[in-house]
Amino acid sequence: MKNKIILAFISVILLACNGQQVQTLKSPNGKIEVKFGSRNSQPYYAVSKNGVEVVSPSALGFLLSGNDQFCCNFVIISAKERTFDETWQQVWGEEIDVRNHYNELSVKLQEKAGKKRILDIVFRAFDDGIGFRYVFPEQENLKSFEIADELTEFNFLCDYDVWSQPLRDNDYETLFHKRKLSEIADTVNTPITVELPNGEYMLIHEAALVDYAAMNLHRRGAINNAHTDSTALKTDLTAWQNGVKVYANAPFSTPWRFIVLADNLNELTNSRIMLNLNEPCKIEDTSWIKPTKYIGIWWGIHMQYQTWSMGAKHGATTANMEKYIDFAAENGFDGVLAEGWNAGWDSNRVVFGERYKFAECYPDFEIEKISKYADKKGVKVIGHHETGGATINYENQLDSAFAFANKYGISSIKTGYVHHLLDYKERHSSQYGIRHYRKVVETAAKYHIMIDCHEPAMPTGWQRTFPNLMSGEGVRGQEYDAWSADGGNPPEHTTILPFTRNLAGPIDFTPGTFNFNNPTSNARVQTTTAKQLALYVVIYSPLVMASDMIENYKNRPEFEFIKIVPVDWQKTLILDGKIGDFVVTARKDRNSENWYLGAITDENERDIKIDFSFLDKDKKYIAKIFKDGVKADYKTNPYPVEIVEKEIDSTNILDFHLARSGGVAIELRIKN
Ligand code: NOJ
Predict the structure, then answer these.
(1) pLDDT tens across 578-592, in order?
(2) What is the DSSP letter of 237?
(3) N or C: which end of the chain has fewer CB within 10 A?
(4) What's residue 37's pLDDT?
(5) Complete domains list, the chain, with CATH
(6) Pocket, ligand 1, Cβ cutoff 6 A
């Protein structure tokens, strides 16, 4: 790991300005400035970029239980600055080297009277945004406490366009919509993506959400019907059932709140502020953590051809697994997921999970035999732990479940929490849920198990600290195309995700459906096949599924793209795009000099130009192009894919026609 760390502590002289105390902190390149101050004794911050205010003065602080205001009556008693610069390497990711370069300002506040309690606020200014967190130091007058409300605000001068999704109790499986800030009438979860009128972007989210409640936002005053400020967003933490937001003991730090300020979509996607605000990797030997491409007993269950539970249509049988393992071995997949392998399923439904057993197979799933077979073929069995939301039941079995996985060579597990509440009482994104998810990831690390968490809390960059957290759901994934009453994911959905949900972390979206007939529902994949291929580049995850039943890949030459596309990258570029309309993404393979490109469009057909000047100047490439075939159309004719090969280099600019909800996927292989 290349590490260059400069630490410089400077005591900052407090500026007295009309009785107000104001501190400023600039990013290393001087473009971004955070202003911190206290007005009427309440702390606030504001942010500007290139001298223009982008976040106007916004309140900070807390309301503790018992109507105890821990937000005003403060005086700044000290402030110090430091500079930090390091470059660290990701175990896997969208790029290898990550620079973590910031200036930091730590402000110590003390109540002027009464208990004279202390609160620190730490700001970091990066070249592409800012982060801040609250620190409650150890002190006599603040030991155990309850946060009744976090008062952090994000206030804006203008009524910007914002991409957001409404908060739900249990998951994030809704569509993102663009609205004016002033039109947000509900509570939304983060991340939210703000489009500025000058074509720039802002992302608001949190990092290192550990032992705290998830941050959601609503318009100030919109919830309690008090005065509503049309362009002011206020934090609304997910509460425990009893209304308390967070239980804490000092010393205690909150997660980081961060704002990315990007000139364009490429900068937005390549901001690493979230990862940089998480703790460095805690796993010493990461050699067992491997990006994975997998198939599995899965789509057939969602299409109702098979069942999770034992019976005539049982999916996860020894025979089916052996068939899938053969296919994986023949086609270069790393693993085979088995859903419905264990005791506890109730017909074809997920039930509340006290009955699930994680070390007990159904009799027709012979783990001994299957694991030996997989081993012989060089394929991994991927485990599945559907908990039905019963986290206590799961935690009681965690060690035995992971030991069972170790015994049978299972090194990745997909977890699931299908229930609107955890243990019938708490919400997934509450402090209760966060504690559980963290415990699973940490315990899994001890057993060298990679986790793919479905129905998670919104990711916040834990993968820097625990890179065995590979991927997750927390999205309206491709399964909606199997059974959703509204017919499936609308074509624009995947043109929005790269710039919203995917910025919070990898998505196990499960692309790769090739057969669009659905006898069991009106839903179906709302794309062309070429777009399905392009999604392997456009949506990022180091754990990627080819979701369809293997029968549907037979005699489909375009399946080759799914076989060859890598899952780990040394570089990522957004070449073009408009959120909600289209995206053109290029990624360079981590293990070779080859590039892969995916372009997708919404429900409109589109002509795009791809400028290949990002390629190495002195190299020639063989481009294998998988594009929408003649008359391809996602509604009437989704299947045609045309495959062409041509030699290209960095001087080429090529035209492509994308069908309605179509796409193009390209492998750019170095010509020897
Ligand atoms: C919902 C998950 O998203 C899906 O992938 C899984 O098959 C079911 N839950 C059952 O666990």
Answers:
(1) 999 999 999 999 999
(2) P
(3) C
(4) 93
(5) 4-276 (2.70.98.10), 292-562 (3.20.20.70)
(6) 298, 339, 350, 386, 416, 418, 454, 473, 479
